[in-house]
Amino acid sequence: MRTIGALLKCLDRRRVGVELEESSMPVPILQLLTYTITDVVYMDKDAYSVLQIFKFELHPSVYKLQSGQKEGLSLYGILNRCRCKFGSRLLRQWFHRPTRDLSVLRRRQEVIRFFTTPRNSELMNTLQSFLRNFKNIPVLLRKMSLSHTKVVEWQNLYKTVYSAVGIRDTVRSLPQTIQLFREISEGFTDELYHIATLISKVVDFEGSQAENRFTVKPNVDPPSTRIGFLLSVPRLPAMVEKENFEIEGLDFIFVSEDRLHYRSARTKELDNMLGDLHCDIRDMETAVMTQLQATVLQRSSCLYKILSLYAELDCLMALAQASQDYGYCPPTYSQRCTLNLQQARHPLMELCTPVFVSNPCLCSDMEGKVKVITGPNSSGKSIYLKQVGLIVFMALIGSDVPAKEAEIGPIDGIFTRMQSRESVSVGLSTFMIDLNQMAQALNHSTGMSLVLVDEFGKGTNTVDGLSLLAACLNHWLNRAPAQCPIVFLATNFHSVLQLDLLPRSPLLSLLTLETAVDGEELIFLYQLKEGICQSSYAANIATLAGLPPALVQRGVEVSDLYRTGRTIQRIDQPSSEELITRCESVVEKFLQLDLDDPSTDLQGFLKDVLLPTVGDSL
Predict the structure, then answer these.
(1) pLDDT tens-digit map of 566-610
(2) 6 domain-assigned
(3) Which of 302, 373, 485, 503 could be stapled to 449 by a disulfide with Cβ–Cβ 3.0 to 4.6 Å?
(4) Residue limits of the DNA mismatch repair proteins mutS family domain (predicted)?
């Protein structure tokens, strides 16, 4: 309640024109709606960024370079196959509010499974073709309420309503055991059909486009048909195109019921005698338009009702189409905390490489909930972590997932400790970002949470980073199995395992990504297996990165000397033989000096020969 009070006060101060109102004028709050987050899965902004669920890029158009943005390679980008704007907007809302409500997820899955069946592909194409004609209904109705409706907006409304009727007729032929289909069939009233019929009978779209204003079809309003003087002649069979309507001495006006209406010199004379009725005709058309607007607005509630249902249908067909295109499978939702993925793939990375190695993931509520993954850099540790996070997220919005089989429990939160572009730009050190993100996972994760940690502690001293990493893992492993979250942790701190810093527990699982060494070449196999990585293969990674071979070899030598406790000699110092040679050369030059000769420059000799040689030697 205190938060709502503060919000109302803030809104009151920020209102435009508040200084011109009386002091007793309240904040114009029309309605307060309640919203529960009981079944909404927790995710912060960094999690969306590092998992690449959304990714905004600058628009390629030079006209939108400063302010325009477009969706880049992201999960939302590849799943958004929606045909109307409301579907895309609802899908984005689903992404921002992943749910653990099994009834909602199963409702979405039954529709997706129906449309992923090959025999129903033609039905999906038909429905999507109707959805392409859906326009912004709230904006159209608002303009109608302000009497700012243009001809193109009447056309858009008619297309929308006509397409809605087409969807209704198609859905009624589908299995009514599916909840969404049943709601569309039962929630659709005859008012929508009445609106479509009324617009079709009243609005003359061809005439409106020709005159760039709202025009009414003939015989719509009996009083208006008697306004003005026209010459009516029957339409001959040869009069097909508009060019055939031209008659010398007559001005063509319109065609109605196989009769052509013209203005002649006599009708114009009558108009001039009795007054110019053109303005009266426009006034009558405006009155008809106003009456039509009022009728549409009175029945607008049915438009809003079907809009949400059709947007949901659009989203689910988009997810079904993506599932067909990329070979996804429907997940199985479990009541217990489990994560079982067979031949799982990264939904984005597999689109960027010709061959992608799939990997499994198995966690139960009693064992394997904390997985420590080691391996050399570039072996695929981070990709595997993101792969698990993305698959879980996709299941929590009701989508099919990139795996052969998938069983997922009711995850209540996804916590990440991964560096993102947004987190670096705030100006904090890398390690402070690590601590902030890790604190969220430690303090707020439950036994139903998924925690993804990548390279924690690398931004500080090795001993400190290793100690904090071991402490965090011990904190989770010492919890009761039901309270320990599902943790996937990738690290290059192999000492956390080699020094036996972690307790022996059935909750702990040690994994590594397989590699092979062919001579001096390191080959990544990207295959997950149980075990520990025995070497970081730093020299091989440096060679693959393009560092000069001499530099890499020197690094290996220094590493060996440091590991064995031997003295590390600087390679930029001369050898003892070279120093002796330099000293002998200086002595010889000194002996050749004639100190009795007044022209001898002793100061120059000391400055130019002796001091530089001694400095180099030291």
Answers:
(1) 877 777 666 677 777 877 887 887 787 777 778 778 778 777 777
(2) no
(3) 485
(4) 449-465
Cα–Cα distance for residue pair 109/398, rounded to 1 Å: 6
- CA 310 from centre of chain: 21
Helix then strand count (H, E) for the chain reads 25, 15
The tokens describing 117, both together, are 């069946």
Residue with the larger pLDDT of the pair 45 and 229: 45
- Is residue 542, in this structure, part of any structural domain at all? no
Helix ranges restricted to H, 51-204: 75-79, 85-96, 102-116, 121-131, 137-145, 151-171, 179-187, 190-202
DSSP for residue 41: P
Average pLDDT over residues 84-92: 93
Contact yes or no for 75/347 (Cβ under 8 A): yes
Residue 208 and residue 145 share a domain:
yes
Find all residues with CB under 8 Å of 381, minimum gap 6, and list them.
373, 374, 375, 454, 490, 513
How many domains is the chain partitioned into structurally? Answer: 3
Domain of 285, CATH number, reads 1.10.1420.10
Same domain, 321 and 333: no
State the residue for tokens 């120059």: 604
Identify the CA nearest to 221 among candidates 152, 154, 156, 290: 290
For the record, the structure tokens of 384 come out as 């595997």
- Please give the Cα distance from 79 to 38 (Å, whole number): 26
Selection from 187-201, 235-249, 405-419, 530-544 with the highest mean pLDDT: 405-419
432 and 513 together in one domain: yes
577-586 burial, b at 16+ Cβ within 10 Å, e below that, comes to: eeeeeeeeeb
Average pLDDT over residues 415-427: 60
Q: Residues of the chain with pLDDT > 90: what percent? A: 37
**541 in a structural domain:** no
When pLDDT is averaged across residues 213-230 and rounded to a whole number, the result is 65
8 Å CB contact between 3 and 32: no
The arithmetic mean of pLDDT across residues 256-270, rounded, is 76
Q: Looking at the structure, do residues 188 and 127 belong to the same domain, yes or no? A: yes
Residues 529, 394, single domain; the answer is: yes
**pLDDT, position 301:** 81
If one compares 245 and 477, the residue with the highest pLDDT of the two is 477
Q: CB-side exposure of 58: number of CA atoms within 13 Å?
A: 8
The whole domain housing 580 covers: 576-617
Whether residues 487 and 469 share a domain: the answer is: yes
Q: Is the dihedral of CA 598, 600, 601, 603 positive or negative?
A: negative
Is 147:214 a contact under the CB 8 Å cutoff?
A: no
Residue 222: what pLDDT?
53
Lowest mean pLDDT among 68-77, 387-396, 484-493: 68-77
DSSP string of 223-242, one letter each residue: HHHTSS--EEEEPPTT--SG
Q: Are residues 313 and 366 in the same domain?
A: no
Q: Which residue type is seen at 17?
A: G
Are 413 and 314 part of one and the same domain? Answer: no
Count the neighbouring beta carbons within 10 Å of the beta carbon of residue 172.
14
Its pTM stands at 0.78
| DSSP track, 145-182 | HTT---HHHHHHHHHHHHHHHHHHHHHTTS-TTSHHHH
State how far the Cα of 407 lies from the Cα of 330, in Å rounded to an integer: 9
Provide the edge-to-edge strand list for the sheet that holds 359-363.
332-333, 405-408, 339-344, 359-363
User: Is residue 258 in some structural domain?
Assistant: no
In contact, 390 and 51? CB cutoff 8 Å: yes
